[in-house]
Amino acid sequence: MLSVRFFEHFGKYLFLMKKSFVRPEKMSIYWKELMRQMIEIGIGSVGIVIIFSVFLGAVLTVQTAYQFTSPLLSKSIIGSIVTNSTIIEMAPTVTCLILAGKIGSSIASELGTMRISEQIDALEIMGINSAAYLVLPKVIAATFTIPLIIIIGGFLQVLSGMVVGHVSNVVSSTEFMQGSVQYFIPFTITFAIIKATTFGFIISSVSAYLGYYTTGGALQVGNSATRSVVASCILILIFDYVLAEIML
Amino acid sequence: MIEINEVRKSFGDREVLKGISGMFERGKTSLIIGASGSGKTVLMKCMVGLITPTSGSIIYNKTVDFASLEDKAKKEIRQEIGMLFQGTALFDSMSVEANILFPLNMFSKMSTKEKLARVNFCLERVNLKGTNKLHPSELSGGMKKRVGIARAIVLNPKYLFCDEPNSGLDPQTSILIDELIHEITEEYNITTVVNTHDMNSVLGIGDYIIFMYQGVKCWEGNRHEVFASTNKEMNDFIFASKFLKEIKQNSSER
């Protein structure tokens, strides 16, 4: 029964994606909508990512230092651990889990409300492909802007880790930087961007799917928003593992 | 004109429309009336293609069976359709002007100046001059309906569908909306189909009326024939109040 429902949802999701990824009726209008979504999804999420990244980087440095009590270990290893774990996991995965809550719920509730208030029907009656007009700009905007936000977040995490380590006398900024550079693997940056792009697509498309097919009233809009966050988070974790297996 | 033949629609085992036929002529206001759950909205959604009927045909302009068309062809006909939704379905994030401009931006090749002139003309036509910059949340129920009508007619549609245009409005505003729909229908020679419960609409603007009861077309006629109707279900629905029953009795005695 569960697998039947899974395939039913998966089929409907693929159908929505097929309906969305088509040539736009009027490019200028879609372009405007894409820009609006980029501002809403991208710039709108920068604030929360800055706050989250600054504190996550700080906590990571303090807690890593706490575990390294042996005088035989060089303190620069703290910089290496904070930098690598930030680039590989904290910035793309953990930040995307936060963004799933912010962006995912917003997309699902926006489309859900449009569905129950017949705004989506109104678009269809006008002869507009509602899926393409509403879903495509959101998916493209999230897929392009989330990796950029993740780069900012990752940079801030490492920076705040270094500053906090220095200020709290755990590790000097020179030692931190030395460790960061010494064990740095350039491919991890590419890997982080691939992960962020994948997660951006998952968050936007899954939330759009759950919002677009909302039925009922206000209660169901709330349910769709909650389900979109839960589904996005689970899929992010699954794909995090899949990508690690494939690419590392 | 729109002709529907033996339209049927089932949801699972439940048949909601049981073979509805009718003819909606150009320049006339046609009403689909009936109690809640009688299938009016499903029939209208079948007519505009939001729901695909199980069987039957919906023929636009004597040539095209809308129900059997491909999506692309349906889209072309839809550009000739204007629709006023029960809850108006105005885009919350846009101003009144942007709501009405939206179909023009999507489908017309007019210059920006011409488009704005058309928007202002439509707003004036529905007596909402000067409300361009307001948002739907700043409008009353009646004003929202009028903006909905303005958006529906902005592309000069051949067909106008109105789903319960009077719901949630006071009697005076309802009459104004009815009159506006009727005037627009005659002025632009549009095929208008209205779903309604409202007796003022039935008696005021019903050039052609279909009465639906439990998914079946029970009666058809015009507003002048309503009083002479002998159909029990129809009379129970139309003359539900004691006051209207007395009017009906007096008219039959005369």
Structure overview:
Chain A is mostly helical and 248 residues long. Chain A has helices spanning 2-20, 27-67, 76-116, 119-125, 130-167, 173-182, 187-212, 218-247. The longest helix of chain A is centred in the N-terminal third of the chain and has 41 residues, at 27-67. Chain B is α/β, with parallel strands linked by helices. Helices cover 39% and strands 24% of the residues of chain B. Chain B has 9 helices and 10 strands. Chain B has helices spanning 40-48, 71-78, 96-107, 112-125, 141-153, 171-188, 199-205, 232-238, 242-253, and strands at residues 2-11, 14-24, 29-34, 55-60, 64-65, 81-84, 159-163, 191-196, 208-213, 216-221. The longest helix of chain B is centred in the last third of the chain and has 18 residues, at 171-188. Chain B is globular. Chain B starts with a strand and ends with a helix. The A-B interface holds A 25-26, 29, 113, 117-119, 121-122, 124-129 and B 48-50, 75-76, 78-79, 81-83, 85-87, 89-92, 102-103, 105-107, 161.
Assembly level: heterodimer
Radius of gyration of chain B: 19 Å
Largest sheet of chain B: 6 strands, mixed
Greatest chain-chain interface? A-B, 15 and 23 residues
- Give the C-alpha Rg of chain A: 21 Å
Task: State the total count of DSSP E strands of chain B.
Answer: 10
Overall residue-averaged pLDDT value of chain A:
94
The backbone outline of chain B, from C-alpha atoms, is globular
Order of helices and strands of chain B: EEEHEEHEHHHEHEHEEHH
What is the CA–CA distance across the termini of chain A?
36 Å
What distance lies between the first and last C-alpha atoms of chain B, to the nearest angstrom? 37 Å
